[in-house]
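Practice problem: predict the structure.
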Amino acid sequence: MSIASPLLWSVTVAALVLLLAIDLVLTRRPHEVGMREAVAWSVFYLALPVIFCAWLWFAYGTTVAVEFLTGFVVEKSLSVDNLFVFMLLLAAFAVPAELARRVLLYGIVGALLLRVVFIMLGAAALRSGTWAFLLFGAILLVTAAKVLKGALSGREREIDVSKLPAVRLVRRFVPVTSDYRGSKLFVRENGTLTLTPLALAAVAVFAVDIVFAVDSVPAVYGVTADPYLVFATNAFALLGLRALYFVLQGVLTKLCHLDHGLSVILAFIGIKLILHWAHGIWPQVPEIPTLASLGVIVAVLATVTVTSLYARRRP
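Answer:
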């Protein structure tokens, strides 16, 4: 059962639209984001979920607040890995530094709309029966195995934008200019509507997020079955993603064990979902409390951070 009333949904969506509108206005004049600006925005977007969590605790109690906080930590940890892929995408498209923030903003707006669809589909699946928990758990276990396999292979991640299905589809039907035209997504050349590489990069970021949504949404449903809390965790994590990108772009390559940790987190939540499904059929099967889940996730993230830094210091 969701804690959200139609009024709370309306206020939340209105606040989200307002924040995005402010961001669009601030990025009308492209500029290279400095570290001070990126840190300030990161602190702001980290303060928002903390304040929201405090309000949830006051209005709905400890359980709801812990579910939100755990879901947010899961989403944020998955988002950090997403940032590395975004960094590769922007480099592959040779996006000018002053336009990177704009590309990420377009991608995140599309991602938010996409997440709403996935969240509603997930909610509908959960309403249809407890089998959805088993399905989500299986998805996370398969994803965890793929992430771990990639981490153990030791190969550097590479992205060939010419092979991305979304990019190939767009290029097939719409011409694309050979150079960037400021912050414009499309221009008219010889009377023909033509996309710019900026639009193509935004499409690629959005398309890649489809893959991310397949594991991130079930992961949060492993923490809470409330669609409103799932949406809130996704929204807060995505809102702060751009600012965090500029803060962490020099640090991401140093977290060499991040994928190992994410595979453990995804597998842990997958097992949690399967146990929850089994508990509904066989009550003697134990469940993993949300507070314990938060402790495990934080411990895993702290461990891979320490081991990554230690590995980087070794000759």
